[in-house]
């Protein structure tokens, strides 16, 4: 590989890696995380009865569904990952404080993944914010 082209190759690899993370994470949030909440699966109901009730379960499920879809939309992926950072911090704290902490590692792993996506898509997020400000 020639030195002048090395940054382009690294950029392409990073973009592909980010897309793989976005697709896998988006599908996870849509299928494995939001659907059990939105269809009131018994295991989700049991957990949310301890932490805030069914209205909260449906709200979090809707956030996860919207965020999972947004991870798959280029201009929204960075913003969605930032929102998921907040959601995963909340999930981690809830696991430790309210629940038994047995599943506390899951939100930490997801937090790391969405933080990588947020960092990798920071330019797109800045473009989106600049575009929104220009519309005022």
Termini separation: 46 Å
> Which parts are unreliable, with pLDDT below 50 for 5 consecutive residues or more?
none
Quick one: biggest sheet?
none
Share in β-strands: under 5%
Q: Give me the secondary-structure category.
A: mainly alpha
The DSSP helix count reads 6
Q: What number of structural domains do the residues give?
A: 1
Report the radius of gyration as a whole number of Å. 17 Å
**How does the overall form come out from the CA principal axes?**
globular
Q: Estimate the mean pLDDT confidence.
A: 93
Instruction: State the helical fraction.
Output: over 70%
SSE ordering: HHHHHH
- Give the beta-strand count: 0
Sequence-ordered SSE layout with sheet pairings:
Elements: H1 6-38, H2 42-51, H3 54-70, H4 77-97, H5 105-120, H6 122-134
Helix pairs in contact: 1-3, 1-5, 3-4, 4-5
Provide a quick synopsis of the model:
81% of the residues lie in helices and 0% in strands.
Structural notes for this entry:
By secondary structure, this protein is mainly alpha-helical. The chain has one domain (3-134). 81% of the residues lie in helices and 0% in strands. The chain contains 6 helices and no strands. The chain has helices spanning 6-38, 42-51, 54-70, 77-97, 105-120, 122-134. Helix 1 packs antiparallel against helix 3 (54-70) and helix 1 (6-38) crosses helix 5 (105-120). The longest helix has 33 residues, at 6-38. It starts with 5 loop residues before the first helix and ends with a helix. 24% of the residues are buried.
């Amino acid at each position: 590989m020639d030195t002048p082209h090395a940054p382009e190759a690294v950029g392409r690899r990073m973009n592909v890696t980010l897309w793989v993370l976005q697709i896998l994470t988006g599908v996870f949030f849509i299928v494995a995380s939001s659907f059990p909440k939105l269809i009131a699966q018994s295991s989700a109901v049991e957990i949310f009865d301890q932490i805030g009730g069914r209205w909260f379960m449906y709200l979090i499920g809707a956030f996860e569904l919207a965020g999972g879809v947004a991870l798959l939309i280029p201009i929204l992926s960075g913003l969605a990952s930032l929102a998921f950072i907040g959601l995963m911090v909340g999930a981690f704290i809830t696991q430790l404080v309210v629940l038994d902490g047995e599943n506390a590692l899951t939100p930490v792993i997801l937090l790391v993944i969405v933080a990588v996506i947020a960092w990798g898509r920071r330019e797109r997020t800045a473009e989106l914010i600049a575009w929104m400000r220009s519309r005022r």
